[in-house]
Amino acid sequence: MASNQAMASSSFISNFIIPDHILVPGSLVGNKGHEPECPVLVFINSKSGGQLGGDLLQTYRNLLNPKQVFDLGEQAPDEVLRTVYANLESLNQQGDQFAKTIMKKLKLIVAGGDGTAGWLLGVVCDLKLSHPPPIATVPLGTGNNLPFAFGWGKKNPTTDQGSVESFLNQVMKAKEIKIDNWHILMRMRAPKVGSCDPIPPLELPHSLHAFHRVSEADELNMEGCHTFRGGFWNYFSMGMDAQVSYAFHSERKKNPEKFKNQLVNQTTYAKLGCSQGWFLTPLLHRADRNIAQLTKVKFMKRHGEWQDLHIPPSIRSIVCLNLPSFSGGLNPWGTPNRRKQSDRDLTPPFVDDGLLEIVGFRNAWHGLVLYAPKGHGTRLAQAHRIRFEFRKGAADHTFMRIDGEPWKQPLPADDDTVVVEISHLGQVSMLSTGDCKSKSMYDPLSPRQEVEEDDSDEDASPSEEFRKFGAADTFKIPYDIDPSRLS
């Protein structure tokens, strides 16, 4: 019986294994052997999830060809994909049928936090591959917003053979869904005093690898200016939520040994939310740090004229959202009812409609309304392009983050302006399961409106799913903290 199970497992795994000659440059054509039905390249951040990352890496290497499983701490994904695709092109020209099939059917698996997943998405987009492969994400971080948005779950997985085989089975059956890609540009004149360079938590995170100062040869370079560029797929946020995230990431960089457990990470995140004043903003958060005081915001609904965005004076955090998964799997936009769609020209949050949803929050208590079945933040606008303009006098810095990775952003000390502009830049392909939260505007089953909508900001009891997975770290207060005693 055990022998039959082993044979069945081996037969199943053979659907994913890529032969050596595809992975080793300069190999001879090889058209013999089993042709994989679902060839995969696996990228794992062995430092994610504490010990889980290393264990998962070992399990995949034991099951598959070790040459198709890569540790992102040792090999960058751009180098791997350039090498593999160059070899595929060469073998294909020589008539290798395996190469032709693998190029057509290839899928990528990335295991790590949202920053790691964003890193791989950025590389696939930047390389402009002849056949860009779709990507499946293994949740192996603290937030896991990207995996959750596409049905891959939120809880860090177990790493045994059975769990990995179950995941591979889902990858084989997964459907492709296109999502919008967003470009972010930041520009300022070289300041007379100080620096306006982004300040990440101790070192540059992976998903910000492309958020760097452009070279003189870059078309976006402007003489006399510092210009930075990058991209994101889930969200850009600014304000108090990013400040809490910055404190968490900085602490984790300093003491990584204390952050080896997902539950501990989430509890620490919540405690930092308290200590940073996210729950008691009127008392602990200066009014001049409110978004309306910090920046002037313009948006473009579709191609056309820029419009001023009205931001209520109490808003302390603003989120530009592409996917319906923020702060541990919550959807700040919700689905506007028919009246809201008509009166304000709003739509449901489709991930492939070329629009970002702009949502505001007053504080963490305001965010708790997302626990309600139809709760949402303050809907500000939907936009094809967004521009933030920071001027002297508001504050000396603010906090920003993209796809879970934060930084501290110095603001002008003289009379110049710092401009951050976000614009649409094509699409990438993701793999999704039947539990996918993301909706396509081309899917006839995607909801167009809600029958009834809850517009109150009252707290609601979190669903069992969110309690189980510890969702909404940004908006969650730990049980052992008494807010009244915070100083």
Automatic annotation (TrEMBL):
Q: Which domain of life is it from?
A: Eukaryota
Q: Which enzyme type, at the first EC level?
A: transferase
> What EC identifiers does the entry list?
2.7.1.107
Stretches for region Disordered: 436-467
What reaction does this catalyse? a 1,2-diacyl-sn-glycerol + ATP = a 1,2-diacyl-sn-glycero-3-phosphate + ADP + H(+)
- Residue spans of biased composition, Acidic residues class: 451-462
> Taking every annotated instance into account, which residue ranges of this chain make up the domain DAGKc?
35-188
Instruction: Extract the GO molecular function terms from the UniProt entry.
Output: ATP binding; ATP-dependent diacylglycerol kinase activity
GO process terms (BP):
defense response; phospholipase C-activating G protein-coupled receptor signaling pathway
Keywords in alphabetical order, please.
ATP-binding, Kinase, Nucleotide-binding, Plant defense, Stress response, Transferase
Provide a GO CC annotation, any one. membrane
This protein's assembly is summarised as: Monomer.
Q: What does this protein do?
A: Phosphorylates the second messenger diacylglycerol (DAG) to generate phosphatidic acid (PA), another important signaling molecule. PA is required for plant development and responses to abiotic stress and pathogen attack. May be involved in the accumulation of PA during cold stress.
Q: What is this protein called?
A: Diacylglycerol kinase
Which organism was this protein described from? Answer: Vigna radiata var. radiata
Kindly list the organism's lineage: Eukaryota, Viridiplantae, Streptophyta, Embryophyta, Tracheophyta
